[in-house]
Fold this sequence. Notes:
The complex is a heterodimer.
Chain A lengths: L1 H4 L1 H19 L3 H23 L22 H31 L4 H10 L1
Chain B lengths: L6 H17 L6 H27 L2 E4 L10 E4 L1 H20 L1 H7 L5 H20 L3 H20 L6 H30 L4 H7 L7 H17 L9 H7 L2 H27 L6 H26 L3 H22 L2 H31 L16 H15 L5 H14 L3 H30 L14 H19 L2 H15 L4
Antiparallel strand pairs in B: 1-2
Amino acid sequence: MELFGLYNYWVFAIVLMTGFYAVIAKGNFIKRLIGLSIFQSAVFLLYITMGKVDGGTAPIIQEGVTDQVYSNPLPQVLILTAIVVGISTLALGLAIVVRIKESYGTIEEHEVQSLDRSS
Amino acid sequence: MTLTTHLPALQVVVPMLTAPLVVLMRVPGLAWATAAVASFMAFIIAVSLTGAVLQGGSVIYLMGSWPAPYGIELRVTSFSALLLLIVTAASTLTLLAGKRSIDADVDPEQQPLFYAAWLLAVAGLAGIVVAGDAFNIFVFMEIASLASYVLIAAGPDRRALPSVFKYLVMGTIGATFYLIGVGLVYMMTGTLNLGDMEARIQEVGDLRSILVAAGFITVGLALKAAVFPLHAWLPSSYTYAPHMVTAFLAACSTKVALYVLLRFDFLVFQQNLPAHAVQFFIFLMPLAVLGVLVASGVAMFEKDLKRLLAYSSVAQVGYILLGASLGSVMGLTGGIVHIFNHALAKGALFLAVACLGARIAQLQLKGIHGVARHMPWTMAAFVVSGLSLIGVPGTAGFISKWYLVSAALQEGTVGLILVAVVLVSSLMAVVYIWRVIEAAYFGATPSSAKPAGEAPPALLVATWVAALANIYFGVDPSLPLTLSTQAATTLLEHLP
């Protein structure tokens, strides 16, 4: 069925928007970073899904096997790189939040803004 | 195979491999010297690549000799040569000049790490420009962005931290949008190489996914390029970053994102999607016009010197897009040459601000009253580059505005409105540059202030080099014009 065949893409869209909502709506810096991570994870799912071939297996050539269907390995390799980028971004974001906590004593955006306004 | 054939790869590899070495250099000054030398080598490479491009057209380099589209291809066109010159020249000039300024802003313990992040930013920006495939552009874009978050967060003011957090969130969303777009194109074409993509989209039957991809890629890159109204991260990041970082990033980081945007939209999408050119122009032209007018208007009322110039940067991005959205060779040439000329003008202005920052703690308009009496050379350089930003004849800024206005005049009634927009916003630029000049030259020196001397010599020399470059490229604009005209012709040659 067409709708069920697109199941992964529906999940992709829902996870993407969940993450995006958290980034926009939350005032807490840590929660926004979590949202950002969810947002990026959705893209990982998109890439993995497009590389999957029905009945496909790992693309390793074996002697004597000629009629095997293989999944496309390239999107998985790409997304491995994107996962590394996502982790680095998260780590850097958390480091910045630690320094915000050290210099402002809070990680809530509106409190940081009111501290900036009063100084 | 001589060394010169590997120049496109070395352009990225030299700064990237020097970065981890710099981290290990704990002797004061050594990290700075190594970073400056690496950056200067990158500049030499960029100059020789530009020479090669001017002589024999695009330089193509196959990583490990694997043929494209299977291997990774690096491609230096006239457009990329122009951007390489901007990135490496801005980095070298600010590094050579800025040691004292960086010493004042960054803790000595952290300086090796700071310079390593600087070199990674150079490597990332150069990588975006030379990369020939969509995914490498994404990876280099993230290298450059992560490094610039670190550089901006090094700012001495604690307000740098919330600003950089905002930049990080918006920059990551932009990059992820770009990644989604690239994924959708890959799904339909099975290739990541930009040249190959261009050919294979023609075989795609159902173009809806490609259209969605074009939307994602345009919005994502517009976020990175601070196109109005997606510019919210830019003003406070530029304001609270260390002065030298502002001068470096203001000259090149948003331009590189614009480069990718123009390249993707013109080369890959426009010739393949029916009526995409019209959608692109109708979408971007209002944003460009609004950006030019609103950001210039905000700059007129801004009290902080760096924030004023940052808003002006948002307006200049609008000019570049305005040129691109005219869709003619002349308009596109104007937009591309404005990338170069704005880098010159804004780089020189931020260097002059760094000179002021070396003597004055608070860079507010009321804090610089009468400063021209103590720092005549700094303020003279500010005036020269300010004139270039406004677009006075004889300076570099005039060349790009001339091209923009001439291209707009070819467009009929819409063109006349656009000419009016360019003129009004140039007058607004006169107002905000004049407010600084008025304060510095005619303001009464506060009696409590102790007389500040002229800026450190190295910084002053660099500021004047940048300011005189504005004059030089205003009188003899053949180099940027040749490169931009070639770039514009290449971008438009396949369009109907």
